[in-house]
Amino acid sequence: MSYTYYTFGGKVPGPFVRVRVGDTVEVTFTNNAKNSMYHSVDFHSATGPGGGGAVTQAAPGETKVFSFKALAPGLFVYHCATPLAAQHITNGQYGLMLVEPEGGLPKVDREFYVMQGEMYTAAPYNTPGRQSLDMQKLLDERPEYFVFNGSTTALTEDYPLKAKVGETVRLFFGVGGPNVISTFHVIGEVFDTVYDQASLSSPLTGTQSAITGPGSASIVEMKLDYPGKYMLVDHALSRAARGLVGHLMVEGKEDASIFHTQTPVTNSGGH
Ligand SMILES: [Cu+2]
């Protein structure tokens, strides 16, 4: 199927923005002259009116500028805040900004950027061809599709996450939404560290999921101990049947003290 997204910079999610706490962030927001609608950007990392949403409302061809000081460290969603904001968000206008603490986050071997979104198409899930938005389904919060990084295949066929046994990985996970809470889970792994709601102050250890609301984010860290294909899901698993699956491919040596079987492993996730 195909769908016309609105985007920040041509991709869903928008660019991963990385700053340091105390930085002054200068935003120059241009709405492409070829567009037909107003757009804007609200940074949850900003302190000030609308997070910038009110002062960046830009007509096609217009540029709006503002700056803000990143006062708090953490991982923050940004999104379009032009009415109807839920429509602009479901259409792909969301992304994450990391405000690093003094000294940065602890070093890991790999970092990944994953966001969850919903799509409210008029036609049912998996109907071929060009799809359109159904406003009533959006208002009723009845998505047809759930997607990681903007499509059902973004993190499976197109760009599976790859890592090796012995490595530590960090997932910057956010929910664009606009409406649905994610119980983010990796099948066959335990999260060693979860920065709940992306607060850096007191991370959780040893959890099975990172519960993340719409317009919110979590940071998840895992050490990879055993090879295989690990499935990224929202453990509201009906959503996996509506497109919400990612793959983390882990290469390396098996360790029978961690996991042992005489049954050949053909499918790690049960899907
Ligand atoms: Cu917009």
UniProtKB/TrEMBL annotation:
Its cofactor is Cu(+); Cu(2+). Belongs to the multicopper oxidase family. Keywords: Copper, Metal-binding, Oxidoreductase, Repeat. GO terms for molecular function: copper ion binding; nitrite reductase (NO-forming) activity. Its EC number is 1.7.2.1. It is an enzyme of class 1 (oxidoreductase). Homotrimer. This is Copper-containing nitrite reductase. Coiled coil: none annotated. It holds the Pfam family Cu-oxidase_3. The gene is aniA_2. Cu cation binds at H39, H44, H79, C80, H88, H235. It comes from Calidithermus terrae. Residues 6-102 form the Plastocyanin-like domain. It catalyses: nitric oxide + Fe(III)-[cytochrome c] + H2O = Fe(II)-[cytochrome c] + nitrite + 2 H(+). SUPFAM superfamilies: Cupredoxins.
